[in-house]
Amino acid sequence: MKPAAFEHHAAGSVEEAVSLLAELADEDVKVLAGGQSLVPLLALRLASVGHLVDVNGVPELTTISNGDGLRFGAVVRHRQVERSPEVAAANPLLAAATRRIGHTAIRNRGTIGGTVAHADPAAEVPAVLALLDGSVEVRGEGGTRSIAAADLFDGYFTTTLEPEELLTSVHVPALPEGTGWSVQQFSRRSGDYGIVTVLATLALDGDGRISAARVAYAGVDAVPLRSSVAESALVGQTASAELWTAVGHDAAAVLEPGSDLNGSAEYRRHLAATLTARALQQASERAGGRA
Amino acid sequence: MSERTVQVTVNGVPHAAAVEARRTLTDFLRDDLRLTGTHVGCEHGVCGACTVLLDGEAVRACLLLAVQVDGREIRTIEGLATGEQLHPLQEALRDCHSFQCGFCTPGFVMTAVALLEEGATPTEEELREELSGNLCRCTGYQSIVAGVAEAVQRVNGGTAR
Q1: Count of CA atoms in the C-beta half-sphere (13 A) of B144
Q2: Which residues of B touch A1 (CB under 8 A)?
Q3: Which domain holds residue B132?
Q4: Beta partners for B59?
Q5: Do B31 and B72 lie in a common domain?
Q6: What is the pLDDT of residues A250-272, one digit of tens each?
Q7: Which is nearest to A251 in space by CA: A222, A278, A279, A231?
Q8: How many domains does chain B have?
């Protein structure tokens, strides 16, 4: 339960972190953000590193800005996200999803950039990015580039970042005015990773018909998934409990989740169907400014 | 591997020690500073026994490296009582018979201190949620929830019932 030896480098700026990543590229270098996933992996010796580049002390990575959507520096803590009035106003779904991460002590350290770069298939924030077509900005020695959520998650715990690139910011679009939303998750204990997590947004027109819908899942595949089955089945329909149940059933039927000690594939599909119906119900109740 | 000198203030007292980069804050507190009130349980962030306050916020000491807290302020269970005078939280926990073997105690107490110092007045459901990151294998949790709820009432005037 003790990490194997490594060297620790406290970066003071993005430039310094990026040049350290390049310089140490051949010596098993990893970025240390909040450390709430990486340090356990090191302690359990499921991972080992030669060098850690610690970006917790980089001031430019610690801020939240709100303009064209919300932009989070990579080491903004989950606790900052869940308590930010700007986040609550622009994207309450993100605040609610963030509150489902671990426990207070974990969220006091864990970071938005860290959870996205770690790309745990059960994690909440990657699914929010998939749901809302968010993106990340990454910096390497060659410059800066933006990666859309759809191009970012590449498999279990794997992203399309190059080893020498640093994830510097996370962009989450604001929810359009009047959009209803829901975060539904089932886990064995409070604070555990969800076995299945469902995120949904809905917008209704004046006649109670669904004008826009988004549905995303975590925990049912190697990467967070959007449900085109659910989304296309919802748009143009009239909100009803029967519709939510039918869409949940159809969307879950095409999922191909794995089986593990937390649940079989069949059980995960069952959860996905049930939680989808609940998410759509709650999102429809919240749509159009109604609480 | 090279060592680095870490300077921290723990419970108001400045300390310095040279450590390897891989030294966790838990081991730093216990083995280098000989502050063994902070307990070490799972060592991978699950049990909450090593919870301490970093600049006033509850954190898992086993998930922090000692080199990361250079220049920062740590509070541990040893810093709560003033001489023979227990912290109001400790008194409430004693009055409610909140603990049995005591292994999880420092982690629960530091988690609850952070909650109290924020001025929180949680409902019982919220309180259970806040304490759910700490594991206890003896009590079944009822007495711990009751003790922290009592402290919330005494200190913050909340209901937590």
Answers
A1: 27
A2: 42-44
A3: 88-156
A4: B52
A5: yes
A6: 999 999 999 999 899 999 999 99
A7: A231
A8: 2
CB contact (8 A) between residue A108 and residue B58: yes
- The half-sphere exposure of A83 on its side-chain side, counting CA atoms within 13 A, is 8
Those residues whose C-beta lies under 8 Å from the C-beta of residue A158, and which sit 6 or more positions away, are: A119
From the list A196, A186, A164, A174, the residue with the least C-alpha distance to A269 is A196
A89-119: pLDDT as tens digits: 999 999 999 999 999 999 999 999 999 999 9
* A7-54 fold: 3.30.43
Q: Is A45 on the interface with B (CB under 8 A)?
A: no
Residue A243, amino acid: L
Q: Say yes or no: B104 and B47 in one domain.
A: no
Distance CA B53, CA B100 (A): 23
Q: What is the mean pLDDT of residues B117-135?
A: 95
Considering only CB atoms, A43 lies closest to which of B21, B44, B128, namely B44
Considering only CB atoms, B132 lies closest to which of A3, A35, A191, namely A191
Using a CB-CB cut-off of 8 Å, the residues of chain A touching B64 are 35, 39, 109
Q: Which residues of B touch A36 (CB under 8 A)?
A: 45, 60, 63
User: Does A48 touch chain B if contact means CB atoms closer than 8 Å?
Assistant: no
Q: Which residue has the tokens 């419970």?
A: B11
Confidence of residue A289 (pLDDT cuts 50, 70, 90): very low
